Fold each of these.
Amino acid sequence: MTSSDETAFDDSVLETLRSRVGESLEPSSEGRGLRVALVCARFNGGITTRLLAGALDALEQTGVDRRDISLTWVPGAFEIPLAALAYADADRPYDAVITLGAVIRGDTGHYELVAGECARGVQDVQLSTRVPIIFGVLTTNTVEQALERSRPDETNKGRECVLSALAMVSVLRQGTLAPS
Ligand code: INI
């Protein structure tokens, strides 16, 4: 979910904040030269393909070359972390992995298990490999909410995930956070 108008980041405060710290590591949305992997669940595919379309549009707009994008389809959200790990610890790891799925409470008795284990697995992979693994798995109460968060516009969760991926790759390459 994106910030609301009331709580969104206000760029005009950045200059002042920069002047009050020794180092300010700030995200970029430049995708040129980056290799990005997408892991997309087939379960609730009517929703996940909308997320994927939003992500692919954003990758193109931010300059990521089509040949630098790899896409893997997995059965459901529960399988996402394993595929993300395979990308993140490959011989030539991807710069970021974007995971896309939809877990809808109404559909399942084991909503908490599927959604919770997917989130835990994604976090485990990024902390153990240091490769940003972006959580683009919708967890909603209804199909309507999932449709709302996968609209083909600026609010599309898949699009938001691409910007998060580029942001994390860029800050992890700067200043104190850059690998020595
Ligand atoms: N997988 C999802 O991606 N979303 C769901 O809502 C869902 N439900 O409702 O159960 C779901 N289940 C499948 C699960 O992710 C695994 O693929 C399956 O359990 C096999 O391991």
Note: The chain has one domain: 32-173.
Amino acid sequence: MRIADARVIVTCPGRNFVTLKLVTDDGVTGVGDATLNGRELAVAAYLTDHVVPALIGRDPARIEDTWQYLYRGAYWRRGPVTMTAVAAVDTALWDIKGKVAGLPVYQLLGGRSREGVTVYGHASAADTDGVLAEVARFTGQGYRAVRVQTGVPGLPTTYGVGKPGIVYEPADAAIPSEAVWDTERYLDHVPRVFARVRAEFGPHLKLLHDVHHRLTPIEAARLGKSLEPHALTWLEDPVPAELQEGYRLIRRHTTTPLAVGEVFNTIWDCELLIREQLIDYVRATVVHAGGITHLRRIFDLAALHHVRTGSHGATDLSPVCLSAALHLDLAVPNFGLQEYMPHSEATDAVFPHGYRFADGYLHPAETPGLGVDIDEELAARYPYQAASLPVNRLPDGTLHSW
Ligand code: KDG
Ligand code: MG
């Protein structure tokens, strides 16, 4: 069997997605997500210009060798654009292998380690009363874990807080919009929110919060400490992760569990964090960390060091990525939680899929492969629209991490 065709499909059913579809000479197809929010066309070009020509004629069964060829074989390796392109190829090859074997991909990864994949939902609102109502909405739907984000008094907008009734979408303008950030107001506000959420929902609901890389290590340590009475399941991305030694400092000061990794692309981005047990959850994803093959490697390293998984699953990761994530989540021994933000109806229509939510769990499709596809005719009706993530400034105008 050989790869006979490879199509890079860019579509915008409400937001941009890039998908790689491989077709074998026997007519078997496989799909891989290649979406990098705000940089979609860079990955599409990398695939079209540099990867697809080398794929035609290759044996689709050779997943590991193809991964090594695209990673090790490229002198300019690593980085989000390259690793997203590698991920798309790898994911599509696992899809093909599952179809050829007649098995869902999780069976090829060792079979199920659990009955379902526990997911967390996103409760967000402008203020604390609003977010309490949102948490209640999620628990009413059966969620066992909820991420809580609110507006910060005195700030016009805050990361993670969507507009009421609209699917959350931070990439809101072709040229980045600008938001204002104030660390002191934030550090004062967040513990008050969690005190109320915990008091209202009791000790058993898993609560999470995403800082989105905005603090320094000592500020993050202070936040972690002030949240200890409210027993969070995790505090996410407290600081930018470039300088990983910062996590040693946070760890020395707080027992609030830490989750990091949505911007990681390879095992080398998290090796120190995992080896020194500086984090509790690694949040790397199939689409941005080199596909199922490489993410499995990261998760296996994490398992050695008592670190659990918590894969990123925002709406800018397509249903193809979510499907792939669910197969891994079901199979690995050290699964923790999976992020889940349902996609818009238009997105779900473009990507027909068989995963389903029930009672706080997601269940992957039982069909051979990943159990997801792209409707290319429908996708063609939604042309690309430029959209960037915002930038963030302090009140005095200084550029701050987003
Ligand atoms: O593209 C960026 C989003 O996926 C990110 O901001 C969402 O932080 C995020 C999360 O935890 O889902
Ligand atoms: Mg996040």
Note: The CA atoms of residues 235 and 258 lie 5 Å apart.
